[in-house]
Amino acid sequence: MTDSIPNPDRAPLPMDLATLIRCAADDSLSLEQADALRAHLADNPQDQARIDFERGLRDATAKAMNTGAAPAELRQSIETMFAEQQTADTVGPPETKSHSYWSQPRRVGAIAALILFAFSVVLIIQRPNQSNGWSAGLSQRVVSWIQTEHNKCCDSDKYREKKLNVVTVADAQERSRIDLGAAPTHIQIENAGYKFVGYGSCHIPGGGASGQIIYAPINGVGEPVSLFVQQDNGQLDSVATNNDCIEGIIADRSKADPGDQLYIWRRDGLIYYLITCTQNKAKPCLTSLGAPDNRISL
Amino acid sequence: MDRADFERLALEQLDALHRMAMQISRRHDEAADLVQETYLRALKAAHRFEDQGQGIRPWLFRILINTFYTKRKRDNRGPTSVAEFFTEESRETTPAEPPPAWDLACFDWEHVDERIKAAVEDLKPEYRAVLLLWGVEGLKYREIAEIVDSPIGTVMSRLHRARKLLADALNDCTEELGVRTTRTNPTDL
């Protein structure tokens, strides 16, 4: 019998034996699961050895994966970086560029990848025999353009500050009203954990005035997301209604990782494009932005 | 928390962060870059850090893992279209087969260190990450889920599958290790 302390705070777990045994070894059973396992072990005491094995495996894994102390040079370089940052903060301008994504030096590799990507991206949102509006060719150009712009704004302080130079929500709404003929709504997404950083006009392929808003995670963890807004001239008529939210992923099938997520929907004469590389954060953003619940993957 | 305190607490986690960086990147130079970038990002976002009672370590782990996957995702970009949207989690299931019921009285864990290292080496980075957080750092499922920004079910699936793979690696050499095994199949609940 396990001596695990039942933990009522655990999420409900499937009641298969393998899961129960591993959770028992981790002291992560709920009261109900502990009771179930206790009853099982009363009839099958030999299975206690399975729990003991998992505990032994945990200790052995910890030993095998413990790589010891970090190199002294690494510690020194971080201490030096801390000191340099403190000096920069003391003598430099006030913290108007405090977002880590925009303050760190970018690597040449990232730029190269970006350039390569700009030439190679393929939109998944394609439908054969589209005769007008949202054609495969246009969709590829739109997605490629959106991702390139989003990345450029993430990668370069100067580019972002120059392009997205409207830095308050009120000014952004006023400016977008002028740019687009209508102000996008629900653009504050702090409920989703993101704060408004900047807005600027842009030129999404396919016609119609457009603008971009970029948001940063409030807690400083994660990547920015961008919301692009474009005048709706019927580009999506053949693929989506006002009640639909098109969802797609821009990725390389040969790679294991999911790519950036792109969501597209229409509302009140505007088309909205949300791009994020954080899959789990996309849903709360969409909720805050008022995107339709009906998702369609094309 | 003032800056000096933040730097001190953050530096106390250097070994743990370097361990994680090594486990997921598998390269010394990349691990060092990853750790440095993590500290830089953490420093820039320090004013937003709020200790929720778990200290600074989970927050730093989150930044490190996020930085790693974001960079890898960007490096991996390429052409094609996929229809596997949001299916990553659904492909991951917990293994149905329970752990082996060996007679551990005659089993010496010291002798399987290299085998476990080799098996760990073969795992995917996301499996190694949860394995490290579970095994070395001693975190609970929910804490791991918050760090890797995944549902608790996904964490359990990855962790249990990783452990199953390690057990399988050991199972291949039970005879050599002189382990007596129970051949009876476990009874379901």
Question: What does this molecule look like?
Answer:
The complex is a heterodimer of chains A (298) and B (189). Chain A has ten helices and seven strands. Chain A is α+β, with helices and mostly antiparallel strands and 298 residues long. Chain A has two domains: 1-92, no CATH class; 108-296, no CATH class. Chain A has a seven-stranded mixed β-sheet, with helices on both faces. In chain A, strand 1 (194-202) and strand 2 (210-217) form a beta hairpin. In chain A, helix 6 packs antiparallel against helix 7 (136-155). The radius of gyration of chain A is 25 Å and the shape is extended. Chain B has helices at 3-12, 14-25, 28-44, 57-75, 113-121, 125-135, 141-148, 152-171, 174-177. In chain B, helix 6 (125-135) crosses helix 8. Chain B folds into two domains: 3-75, Rna Polymerase Sigma Factor, Chain: A, CATH 1.10.1740.10; 83-189, Arc Repressor Mutant, subunit A. The longest helix of chain B has 20 residues, at 152-171. The model of chain B is unreliable at 78-90 (pLDDT under 50). Chain B is mostly helical and 189 residues long. Chains A and B meet through helix 1, helix 2, helix 3, helix 4 and helix 5 of A and helix 1, helix 2, helix 3, helix 4 and helix 5 of B.
Write the layout of secondary structure elements.
The complex is a heterodimer of chains A (298) and B (189).
Chain A: H1 17-25, H2 31-43, H3 48-65, H4 72-91, H5 100-103, H6 108-120, H7 136-155, H8 157-163, H9 169-180, E1 194-202, E2 210-217, E3 225-231, E4 244-250, E5 260-267, E6 270-276, H10 279-289, E7 294-296
Parallel strand pairs in A: 4-7
Antiparallel strand pairs in A: 1-2, 2-3, 3-6, 4-5, 5-6
Helix pairs in contact in A: 1-3, 6-7, 7-8
Chain B: H1 3-12, H2 14-25, H3 28-44, H4 57-75, H5 113-121, H6 125-135, H7 141-148, H8 152-171, H9 174-177
For CATH, the homologous superfamily of the largest domain in chain B is named as Winged helix-like DNA-binding domain superfamily/Winged helix DNA-binding domain
> Rg of chain A from C-alpha positions?
25 Å
Helical coverage of chain B, percent range: 55-70%
Helical stretch tally of chain B? 9
- Largest interface, counted with CB-CB under 8 A? A-B, 99 and 94 residues
